[in-house]
Amino acid sequence: MTQEQNMTKTSTYTADNITVLEGLSAVRMRPAMYIGSTNINGLHHLVYEVIDNSIDEAMAGYCDHIKVTVHMDNSVSIVDNGRGIPVDMHPKEKKPALEVVMTVLHAGGKFDNDTYKVSGGLHGVGVSVVNALSEYLEVTVSRGGQRHYQRYVRGVPQAPLAVVGETDKTGTLVRFRPDEEIFEELDFQYDVLAKRFEELAYLNPGIKIEFFDEKSQNRDVYKYDGGLPLFVKNKNLDNGIHRIVSGSGEMEGVSIDFALQYTAGYKENVYTFANNIRTREGGTHLQGFKTALTRAINTYIGNSADLPKKLKQK
User: Fold this and answer.
1) Could you tell me if 216 and 232 lie in one domain?
2) CATH code (residue 258)
3) Is residue 104 within 8 Å of residue 156, measured between CB atoms?
4) Which of 11, 168, 220, 228 satisfies CB 3.0 to 4.6 Å to 259 for a cystine?
5) CA-CA distance, 30 to 245, in Å (whole number)?
6) CB of 51 within 8 A of CB of 68?
């Protein structure tokens, strides 16, 4: 076969060459597009996606207790006392809303301003991606006096949603085991997860997060009613040179909370978050805060003619 004939054969491009990935198959084929990587960082990201749903319930005022457990088989269970994922029939998809949330990308209660005013991200792919990248995922919803259960294997429901008992509680329990075919390792790092849970407890005063690792037997409980001021206090210890300055406000539907304290040290430590998600690179929210802080200090100095005299007296 000549090179020209070979090129003609291999360069044939027709409708038969178009592959359509349906459901969650695209997630399994390109997982890094959705969770960043398939290494230890991506593994931890699965836990973050699930607990963020519980935190959203807390921010809406319906949840104040979350339990996270890393089991001996490297599966993780996360249970909250929120309202529970809806289990009634979805009018468009013609299947339970729980199954829609677990199997359809961009499906959730975060795209209108009625269910959640604020949420940890608005992409709506979180828990369905976790389902797709798990060897198995089991979800139990306590809602309306009944306990509903469904099991998935690599994103595929194994049986219809079933009622498995009665209850007087509400909430959602999700247990999943990451797929060994996808991830390079399945060993969760306790310290990494613990740090994230601690931050969430500071950012959401009043919520209680319990964390237990069956393998190491490590156990911690995070609950900080003091919020951000307590976060700054515990970070600075006794190195602050003045009392902690904190505040909160809202404008045009956007709320902000801040706390700061200057110390005698030479290193600046800045922690910024947007919708409970750490923004390590800062962003417009940090730049805007710094600009406003500088303006406020300059205004105070400009309106205080006797400030130099007061400083000399001290």
Assistant:
1) no
2) 3.30.230.10
3) no
4) 228
5) 45
6) yes
pLDDT at 71: 97
pLDDT surpassing 50 at residue 122: no
Q: Please give the mean pLDDT across all residues of the chain.
A: 87
pLDDT of residue 20: 61
* Residue 124, token pair as written in the block: 């709506």
Same domain, 42 and 115: yes
Residue 9, SS3?
Answer: helix
pLDDT of residue 301: 84
Identify the domain boundary among 178, 193, 222: 222
Asked whether 66 and 75 are in contact (CB, 8 A), the reply is no
Q: Is residue 74 part of a domain?
A: yes
**What percent of the chain has pLDDT above 70?**
86
- Tokens 């919708």 correspond to 275
Q: Which residues contact 8 (CB under 8 A, 6 or more apart)?
A: none
Q: Which of 222, 245, 267 is the last residue of a domain?
A: 222
* Inside any domain, residue 146: yes
Which residues 6+ apart lie within 8 Å of 63 measured at CB?
A: 54, 55, 57, 80, 81, 82, 83, 171, 207
